[in-house]
Amino acid sequence: MAKKFVFFLIVGFLFSGSVYAQTLNEIKQQKTVMEKEINKTSNLLNSNKSKTRKSLNALNRLNSDIEVQQRNINVLQKEIGDVSIRIDMVNKQISETDSALSLMRKKYVSAIKHMRAHKTSQNKLMFLLSSESFHQAYRRMRYLREFSLWQQKQSEEIKAAQQKLKEEQLKLKHLQEEKQEKINKINSNKLSLETKRSEQTRLVSSLKERGEELRQTLREKEAEARALDAELERLIEIEAKKEAERQRIEAEKRRAAELEKARKAEEARKAEEARIKAEQEKRRQELEKIRKEQLDQEKKAEKKRQKELEKKRKELEKEQAELREQEQKLKEERKAAEKKEKEIKESKSEEFTELSSDFESNKGKLPPPMTGNYSIVKKFGRHKSPNLQYVETNCLGIEMEGDLSASARAVFNGKVSGVFQSSFGIVVMVRHGSFITVYAGLSSIEVKTGDIVKTGQTLGKIHKNPDDEDHCLLHFEIRKEKLKFNPEEWIR
């Protein structure tokens, strides 16, 4: 009845555990998906912030450019004003020059007309000869020369005035073209900058709206993630309780299995003892029968009977010796079984149950690799030789000295990866995942390569040193592949 109850309890636990595991896995998957979505939204938000920041910077730069351009426009407008003033001045100069030119042309035309009224060179001669005195003639000659010079000067001034008028007109044209170019440039810059500012303003507004949407989405997803975390923590707590219950049930099952195994071993031992006793009784009865037959046939065939009896006696003695040997072997096996059972009980003692399932996490907690009292006679690392001044020795582990009954034992659950003979004696290597423990200096072993060993299980007897009052010396190492560690830091 109890077995059925345990069976149904285990089935119910496994069923509920499977349903729970499904729910837990779904929550974990949802959390994973949510974390990916949060990361994606965060990345989008960061990208939006970056774009917004860049757009704002661009807008600020554009506003700065607009301000600079506005200043340039102001300068251009001032320059246009200056050009307009210059144009007015040039127009005034052109007007003045044109008036002066007209006046000079009138004077020149009048003078030409006057000269033409008094034609030919004879008129000039007559004008000189008709003088009343030499002084008057000189003055008239001088007048004629000055008039000729004036006439020439007037002609040159008219030409210069005409040239100046052309230059001023050309200058006026260039100034008008420059003014129009500056006006076109101002209009173009204004249009371009206003267009860019409008586009940038729309972009910034769009990015800000998108950023707000992403922040709202992120807040919602973070709220969902927090809810999933709370649910996940609740389910994990339930899982921890169920796991503890499962481990308790498994421990109960293991204890029941061990007790059943021990019971069966005891029954087998008792059955074997009963079989041996029955065999011995059968042999005794046969011997008794033979003895009776010997008495009945003693007179008829004394010699033959003696010979056969002797033969039977030897066979019987041989069989009895074999039975005694079997009985002795059975006793030894029983002692070994009792020893194994004791070791199993010891392995479940407080010394070993405190260890976790991971070898590395038990640093400083491992039991000593030697039973009984011990002392460390050689430490880990490099040491100077006591006899040679410049010689150093390198100890890859530690050397431990114990009493005569000391045995080597496993410091942690593992698998025997190698057994071989060396100068240290028999060496046993036990692998614990990526770690290896080495036990050297054994005289006999109780394990072989491939055996699974438990924490505290005896590996073999430690060799007795006859040169050192029969003290036992164990060489012990801890390695992680090619790395060597100080065992003193690992054992308690």
In brief, what are we looking at here?
With 492 residues, the chain is α+β, with helices and mostly antiparallel strands.
Write a structural description:
The chain is α+β, with helices and mostly antiparallel strands and 492 residues long. The chain has five helices and 13 strands. The strands form two sheets. Strands 1, 4, 5, 6, 7, 8, 9, 10, 11, 12 and 13 form an eleven-stranded antiparallel beta sheet that branches. The longest helix is centred in the middle third of the chain and has 163 residues, at 134-296. The two termini are 46 Å apart. The model is unreliable at 1-11 and 348-353 (pLDDT under 50).
Structural class: alpha+beta
Could you say what the CATH topology of the largest domain is called? Helix Hairpins
**Whole-Å distance between the termini?**
46 Å
- Major beta sheet summary: 11 strands, antiparallel
Mean pLDDT: 80
Q: Uncertain segments of ≥5 residues (pLDDT<50)?
A: 1-11, 348-353
What amount of the residues lies in strands? 5-15%
CATH architecture label name of the largest domain: Orthogonal Bundle
